[in-house]
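Archive entry: two folds, one per protein. Generate the first.
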Amino acid sequence: MIKLVYCITRRHGMALEEFSRYWREVHGPIGRRIPGLRRLVQSHPTRQPADLSPPPFDGMAELWFDDLAALEAARRSPEWRASSADEAQFIDGARTALFLTEEHEILPQT
């Protein structure tokens, strides 16, 4: 299983609350239709403790696929294109990072 991780920054001028609402209620349902997607998680920020500096991103998305071939097939799909096109509505692409990972579990869930 591989995971695509997006560290997302909201579009300039968009309030954090509106960003979170749009991402969850509008973009989420678009993304869940991507073929071959095994799991999709959005991580929305919570209030930070006073001793922690604010994060450079406004949220994180994690998309799991069986393997690289499944991800490549998904990226060729009309559903992926629709999801990518919708990102311009709420994401600052120039300040958003993404990377591909393979998880190595250190402490299993109990």
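Generate the second and append.
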Amino acid sequence: MDLDFKKTLHFYSPRSEGPACTAAAPKPRVAFLCVHNSCRSQMAEALGRKLAGDVFESFSAGTEPGGRINPDAVRLMKQVHGIDMEASQHSKALADLPPVDVVVTMGCNVQCPTLPCTHREDWGLDDPTGKGDEAFLAVIKRIEEKVLDLKRRAQAGAWK
């Protein structure tokens, strides 16, 4: 499947508000996806909740969920950010996701079926699994930067 989603897929938002809606607009929902939902997408979900939870809701899933979160990711996210991913998250399939507005793939050539959304992007992150703490810390830092950029764009109304 071609990963240049903007050229190959049609987007629509699965959540829309009618003109009579008087309640505050819901926060955009962002899904972070990879193959196993065990490392990068889990860290992105956790950092999305911590760094941008006031602006968007964060979820993660995998096309072939691995069943458990990478222990190095768990250890380093707890050490660096104080986030206990084992206590708050688990590996999930795409079918477990609620309707989302934004889909972010981690850069793992994930073969993702059409998941309705208004925006889709790929972050091109290398999988740090088996590469030591330095590789994990570099990916965590890159995810932080990308989550904060996503937050800025959401605050600017990028997906309204």
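Annotation attached to the second fold: The chain has one domain: 28-155. Confidence is low (pLDDT under 50) at residues 1-14, 16-22.
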